[in-house]
Each structure stands twice: as structure tokens, then as C-alpha cells.
Design brief:
This protein is an alpha+beta fold. Helix content is 13%, strand content 31%. It is built from one helix and three strands; from the N terminus they run βββα.
């Protein structure tokens, strides 16, 4: 589970969708700015950039009885 610090600096009272702020992922240096609620949600919905995604299996399953598979 990721943890975030969300800082809101400004909000337009006439148009509450317009915000200005920063999102920090706890334990990382990078900060991302947002200007609308939709941008904030998009930042929080993204996959963590350091998550490992494996597209192929790491281990190859060897059938029983095949001592030297080719």
C-alpha cells in the first residue's frame, strides 16, 4: 500500500474543481503538482513507478521425468 502527503495550496471557491497542490509519495523525493480534482485522482490512481512488473514467468516448470529438458 502506498502512502501519500497531499498539500492543498489554493482552492477556487466559485469553482471547487480548480485546486492547486502537490502530491508526495512517502519515502520518495519526487513531488507532483495538480491543478484540478481530476489531476489529483489521476496521480493517486497511477501505478507506483517502482513496482516490478514481470511479463514472463521467472521460473520454467520442468515436467516430472525430464532430467535434461531442451
Amino acid at each position: 500500500m502506498d502512502s501519500y502527503i497531499v498539500r492543498l495550496y489554493r482552492r477556487d471557491t466559485e469553482n471547487p474543481e480548480n485546486l492547486v497542490g502537490l502530491v508526495e509519495t512517502v519515502g520518495e523525493e519526487a513531488k507532483r503538482s495538480f491543478h484540478t480534482v481530476n489531476e489529483l485522482v489521476a496521480i493517486l490512481s497511477e501505478s507506483h513507478p517502482h513496482e516490478i512488473k514481470i511479463s514472463q514467468p521467472v521460473l520454467k516448470v520442468v515436467q516430472s521425468g525430464n532430467k535434461n529438458p531442451r
